[in-house]
Every structure is written in C-alpha cells, then in structure tokens.
Structure to design on (578 residues):
C-alpha cells in the first residue's frame, strides 16, 4: 500500500506571528520554521498503519508531499526522520502567495503522480488555520473523504474511522483510495530517533517545479489568487487590567467586577 | 448582489447562526436562505427562518444527503448557486461548514475566505488573525464570494418575512462513504462553545476537577471550555478545547480558571470582549490580557464568586 501524507512548513506555533506590510502575506523571516504540529499526527498514523500491516518489507511506503520554499526541505527531513520513506517538495518562485485553491490544485497534481491508496492530512495548518485542504483534495481528486478521524483502521481495501466533531462521534468507512484527515487526539507522534535522523539524511526528496506538474504560473501564486487581502492593521495588544490577590475575598471581588460590567 | 445563506439546523431546528448570517446578508440586498436535509426539513424550518427574515427560502431535500458530512450537500449547493447566479455565499465557520465551503469553492471555481467576523455590503470580509493581533480585510476576486462566518460575530436582528419554502430535489452522485453509526454529542443543556456569549474554561489548575468551573458556567448560562493541557490529560472532551489547535471563541465574557495562558491558548480567546482569569501564579501570562485577574486558588475563588453572584441574582 502506498500512503501519501500532505505536510506544510509553518512558522513556529509558539512564536508571535505578523503580516508583512508590502506583501500582505505572513512574515516568515526571522521566525523559526517548523513542521506543522498537526501534520505530525498524520505522519504518525501513516507509520502505524504501515507497521501494523507488515512494514516496508510487505511493500508499504509513506511519501510526504509539501509545497513551499526550498527551506521546507527541513520540515520534510523531520518527517523522514520520524520514519517516512521519501518526499516530494513542489517549489517554484511563482507559487509565492498561493491561496488554498492553488495549493490544493498543486497538491492534487503531485498526489496523482504518486497514485497512492491512502492520503493522510492533519486537520489544518497552524498558520492559516483554514482547514479546507482535505475537502478540496477530495473534490479535485474525485476521491471519497473521511475527516476529523480520532481513530483510523485500515483492513485490506477498506478504511474505517471515528469522526470526532462538535456534532458528535460518527463511525464511517470507505473503500480505498480515500483521503483521511486526523485530529490531534488520534495518537502521540514519535520523536525522531538518532538512527532515524541519520537515515533521513540519505532519503530522497524530489523537488518539482510548476513545469514538472504541467501547471502554468498564472494559475497559482499571488497572480492567480482567488482571493486578495485589501488591507490589514495590527491591533494594539490588550493591556493588563486590574489584578487582585485573593486574601479571602477574591471571589466576591470577581462577582462585583462582573456586576459593575453588567455581565452577571 | 444576490447573497445566499446556508441555514444550519439539527433535524429542522435552526441554530443561532441562521439569524446572525441572515442579519449580515441583508446588508447587501436580496437574501436567499438555503437549507439542506432530509425530505420534510423545509416545511419544518420555514417559520423559524421567516422569523429571522429572508427574501427567498429554498430547501434542498434528499433522503441520502446526510450519508456524507459534506460531499453531497456541497454538490446540491454548488449547482444551485451557479444556476441562480449567486454572488455571495455565507456559511457558519464550523468544522462541517468549512468542509462544505471548501468543496463548494472548488466546484464553482470560486475564492474562499474562512473565519470572517464581519462582512460588508460589498462582500469584504473582516478576519481577526493571530489571536486578535491583526485585523485583515479581504475580498474574493474570482467566482462567488464563499465566506465562512464565525458564530457569535454579530447581534442578530430580525426582519420577519412571509416566504414560502421552495423545495428542490436534485439528482446527486452517490458517495462511497458509508456511515455505520452516529452518536450525537450530548448538549447537556449548555450552549455550544463557539456560540455562547459567556465561556468559563478550566486548565491544568483544575487538576481534573471541573465541578467549580461547571457550577459557575451553569449559573451564568455559559459554555464550558478547556485548555489543551486539560483535554490532553483527558479531563475534558477534545471538542471543548479552546486555543490554536482547538476552537476560537469570542464571547462577551471569558473566564479562564487555572489556565496559564500560553500563546497556544490565547490565540483561541484573545478576541473575547472581557477577559477574567483566576490563577495561583501571579506571573502567569494570562494576566497580560485580562481585564480583571484574581491571584488565588480557583477552588476557593470560584465557589465564593458563584455564591456571591447567585445571592445577588436572588
């Protein structure tokens, strides 16, 4: 079974993020770039599925696919050191400023080259937080989708999941090939071992351009964007208000504050 | 302008987002309310939609449409939007709403903006990003403006109408997905987290005991939230997690109990109108964003606050 995991390099989710005044895009300079936290759960799921079905000896493989600048190879390298077999990076200057529609178009083309049985994604990237790519891939690739999986089981040619959302927990399944997105409660992603890190240095990252995928530059990037930022402004940081130390009447003080603000 | 609004409902009972989205949509003129569901859903919801107000109500009814969370719904919607020449489509920014929107955007080759907190008459969307540290105005430049709107973003105003519901039953391509079992979330009488006007949240400081958090929440008619530390520990369901990798909430009042306020958490609640925190650690970062903070033990402060408020309310 061939598994593809879609991943993204994002600014460190613990760092303060800003927009760039001239490009109106997220400022990636001066912020540590990391593998999107939420994608690690998808990689871990892929590795567990391979391990549970006889490993790479049984002909199973995990390929990571990402779109991004050259330095996104660092994020891919992390996924390879966790245990993925190889990776594809679609990198092209014309892709800068691409929105979700362009990203899903590019990822879909790259996935078609691999022709996998199973495509895994995280639920969203921690920078844009749109949570739309898995559904867009389902439309573009005309494949069934199982989303928000809190549990995934793969048997022969069938995948079943437990979908966990606000609306409840649904058990659902689909034949392969299928797109599955996993939530962060599904597993505990492994830390790369020393052996894994060393092995990853030798693993192949194939870098593809737009031309390799047969996509023209005017379909993607800022030029081809389906939506545009008009303007933005930074909000003044919230300032700290009153702070009282509880010496026996902290709860009463809180109650009075809420009464004063007519909130309770 | 021809704005279409997706009416969210549970078995024909419309959710609070319906009134909010219709209020926003009316700014641009003609509004069509669309709901999707099993046969009979249109007749069931029409009075409630009219009490919010719309110029037209269309129900896409199909007995198989709920066989997939979003794929079949998106098929029906995309065809309708194209056929009717919709210029803007508003849908609630929920997990399912975003899935439907993503699919409709691809099917209609349209741009999409998610998590808007406001939309102008000419479909310019306002988003509050990076935990409220920046406000962005964006516009869709191709196709229909597909915009997902966060619950609780506007105060709904009603402008009652008297439309009849037009029922359509399009032919849908079946999905390969089979849903074998459904366990709807137990609402437990509390409002939905992203829709609530007050949220009381618990974190590591609760040590797993959410009783005082829930007691205050119930007195205030609030929803209960939790930090990632609390949901990771299994103390509270994942669906209640507030923060960067959980829900973004923007209530009138947010009460953080025993939550340190790492940026992960603040990203999900910093746009709340008033923020109150109780934490033992006077240096906890949550106090940098609170309007009123109590340095103390939540197990002492919360019960006292709860009984004081209860006494005042009589």
């Amino acid at each position: 079974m061939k598994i593809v995991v879609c991943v993204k390099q994002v600014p460190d989710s613990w760092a303060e993020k800003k927009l760039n005044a001239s490009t109106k895009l997220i400022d990636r300079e001066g912020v540590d770039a990391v593998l999107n936290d939420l994608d690690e759960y998808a990689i871990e799921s892929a590795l567990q599925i391979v391990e549970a079905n006889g490993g790479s000896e049984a002909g199973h493989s995990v390929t990571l696919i990402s779109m991004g600048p050259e330095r996104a190879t660092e994020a891919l390298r992390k996924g390879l050191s966790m245990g993925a077999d190889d990776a594809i990076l679609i990198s092209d200057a014309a892709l800068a400023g691409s929105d979700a529609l362009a990203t899903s178009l590019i990822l879909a083309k790259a996935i078609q080259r691999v022709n996998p049985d199973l495509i895994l994604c995280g639920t969203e990237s921690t920078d844009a937080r749109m949570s739309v790519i898995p559904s867009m891939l389902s439309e573009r690739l005309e494949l069934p989708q199982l989303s928000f999986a809190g549990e995934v089981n793969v048997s022969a040619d069938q995948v079943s999941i437990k979908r966990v959302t606000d609306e409840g927990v649904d058990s659902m399944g689909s034949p392969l090939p299928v797109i599955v997105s996993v939530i962060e409660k599904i597993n505990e992603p492994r830390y790369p071992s020393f052996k894994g890190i060393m092995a990853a240095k030798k693993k192949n990252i194939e870098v593809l351009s737009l031309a390799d995928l047969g996509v023209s530059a005017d379909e993607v990037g800022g030029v081809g964007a389906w939506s545009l930022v008009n303007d933005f402004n930074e909000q003044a940081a919230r300032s700290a208000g009153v702070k009282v130390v509880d010496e026996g009447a902290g709860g009463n003080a809180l109650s009075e504050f809420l009464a004063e603000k007519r909130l309770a | 302008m021809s704005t279409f609004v997706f009416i969210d409902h549970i078995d024909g009972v419309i959710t609070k987002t319906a009134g909010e989205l219709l209020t926003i949509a009316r700014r641009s003129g003609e509004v069509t309310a669309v709901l999707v569901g099993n046969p009979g859903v249109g007749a069931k919801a029409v009075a409630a939609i009219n009490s919010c107000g719309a110029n037209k109500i269309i129900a896409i009814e199909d007995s198989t449409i709920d066989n997939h969370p979003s794929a079949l719904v998106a098929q029906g919607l995309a065809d309708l939007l194209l056929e009717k020449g919709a210029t803007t489509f508003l849908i609630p920014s929920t997990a399912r709403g975003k899935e439907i929107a993503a699919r409709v955007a691809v099917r209609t080759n349209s741009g999409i903006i998610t998590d808007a907190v406001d939309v102008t008459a000419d479909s310019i969307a306002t988003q509050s990003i990076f935990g409220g540290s920046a406000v962005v105005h964006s516009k869709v430049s191709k196709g229909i403006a597909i915009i997902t709107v966060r619950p609780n973003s506007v105060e709904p105003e009603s402008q009652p109408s008297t439309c009849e519901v037009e029922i359509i039953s399009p032919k849908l391509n079946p999905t390969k997905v089979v849903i074998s079992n459904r366990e709807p979330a137990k609402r437990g009488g509390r409002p939905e987290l992203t829709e609530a006007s007050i949220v009381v949240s618990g974190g590591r400081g609760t040590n797993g005991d959410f009783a005082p958090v829930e007691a205050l929440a119930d007195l205030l008619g609030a929803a209960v939230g939790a930090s990632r530390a609390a949901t990771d520990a299994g103390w509270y369901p994942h669906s209640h997690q507030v923060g960067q990798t959980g829900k973004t909430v923007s209530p009138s009042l947010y009460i953080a109990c025993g939550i340190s306020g790492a940026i992960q958490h603040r990203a999900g609640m910093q746009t709340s109108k008033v923020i109150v925190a109780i934490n033992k650690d006077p240096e906890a970062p949550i106090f940098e964003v609170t309007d009123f903070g109590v340095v103390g033990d939540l197990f002492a402060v919360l019960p006292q606050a709860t009984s004081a408020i209860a006494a005042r309310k009589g």
Summary: The longest helix of chain B spans residues 298-313. The mean pLDDT of chain B is 94.
